[in-house]
Design goal:
Length: 384
């Protein structure tokens, strides 16, 4: 019988998660829950800065709030615990069933904290900045590509903070904002450019990642999917946590429950105070549902397909740009679901072996958003 105990060297990630939860819960005893505008106006205060940093963990889904962030991490922790023990209710095995979730989380969190240490000064004016990008990009991709262990984990964290965050900051502030482009294009283009540079450096200096490890004795519960209705619904839910490389229903459920709680407590706090959480989530769910149904044969043939892309790009950008009318929600969801996954796959299949395939996904986000969001506005306004 295989040993399914949680390796002691992977406990640091759980310790960090517990400390994060303790800091957040402790912060809730101080005054009323601020809305997004109040938080950004007081970023010079430790509590507001803490909330911003924790909110970075859920920002990839455009929720930007500490409760969905904490829910995501607690759900992911539960999913990994179930995976380690081989429980059938674990859902889709977190981090694709490789047992690397603790290292993925540790590298991503370390990179996020280091990014704030190096680039947190950019928030001094109270304006939004893409400080979240290191948490959902290079560090996790390096662990998944090269394996776990402290050498890869720390290398990914440092490179994410030194390359990804400043690249996105530059593109957002000096390209997207002056040209009036959605800032998401700068976010994901920065991720892609910096990550390609980092992977090239890793190929040039293989000692940075040569000690990558993969856990022994950890296996997902292998159940042959029937790709029926239940699988479709599970896959739609799992897509909500795919961007941080979790891809698990429990993690997604924690994310969405945290978002619901945040919205009930203070409607103007999550999603940048837009008060369009309902429209945004409806469009994201519809986009995943359409994508999973249309591309189900690709899921069957490949085992994985990037149907999550419009959830974290086209749909929320369209809603925040053009409003939450049903035409905007439906058109952005359908077009995003039809066009962005095959584009991502076409790009990823042409990448060299030393570059993680997520590069194709983020490039597809940039291209699809640039093409689809203006079209959504024209169609919704009756211009086409």
């Amino acid at each position: 019988m295989k040993d399914l105990r949680f390796p002691i060297r992977q406990w640091p990630s759980l310790v960090m998660l517990v400390c994060l939860a303790a800091l957040l819960i402790g912060s809730l005893f101080f005054g009323q829950w601020p809305d997004y505008t109040q938080m950004t106006a007081t970023l010079d205060q430790p509590l507001s800065r803490l909330r911003w940093i924790v909110g970075d963990i859920s920002e990839v889904a455009f929720y930007k709030h500490e409760l969905p962030a904490l829910g995501l991490l607690l759900g992911a922790c539960l999913a990994h615990w179930a995976y380690v023990r081989g429980y059938r209710w674990q859902g889709f095995a977190i981090c694709y069933g490789n047992g690397l979730w603790p290292w993925v989380f540790t590298s991503s969190l370390l990179s996020l904290l280091l990014s704030h240490l190096l680039w947190g000064w950019t928030l001094a004016g109270g304006d939004w900045q893409p400080t979240f990008v290191a948490f959902v990009s290079l560090p996790a991709a390096m662990v998944l590509l090269f394996g776990g262990g402290w050498q890869v984990t720390i290398s990914g964290a440092v490179l994410g903070a030194l390359l990804v965050t400043p690249a996105s900051l530059l593109l957002v502030n000096y390209v997207c904002i002056p040209l009036g482009l959605p800032v998401l294009i700068g976010n994901v283009s920065g991720m892609a450019a910096a990550s390609v540079a980092a992977f090239m450096m890793c190929k040039r200096f293989p000692s940075w990642v040569k000690l990558g490890q993969r856990p022994n004795g950890l296996q997902a519960v292998c159940i042959q999917p029937d790709y029926g209705l239940v699988w479709v619904l599970r896959r739609v839910l799992a897509d909500f946590s795919e961007a941080p490389f979790f891809g698990n229903e429990l993690a997604s459920l924690g994310l969405l429950l945290g978002l619901l709680l945040a919205y009930v407590i203070a409607p103007a706090a999550p999603a940048y105070g837009s008060q369009m959480v309902v429209q945004m989530v409806a469009g994201q769910a519809l986009a995943s549902l359409v994508g999973v149904l249309v591309w189900r044969r690709q899921w069957q043939a490949r085992g994985w397909y990037p149907t999550y892309i419009p959830i974290v790009s086209i749909v929320p950008v369209a809603v925040l740009t053009h409003g939450g009318d049903w035409q905007v929600v439906v058109i952005s969801a359908v077009l995003g679901a039809l066009l962005s996954p095959p584009l991502a796959t076409a790009i990823s299949e042409r990448l060299p072996s030393h570059v993680h395939g997520y590069i194709g996904n983020v490039l597809s986000m940039a291209i699809s958003t640039l093409a689809i969001v203006p079209l959504v506005g024209l169609i919704a306004e009756g211009g086409v």
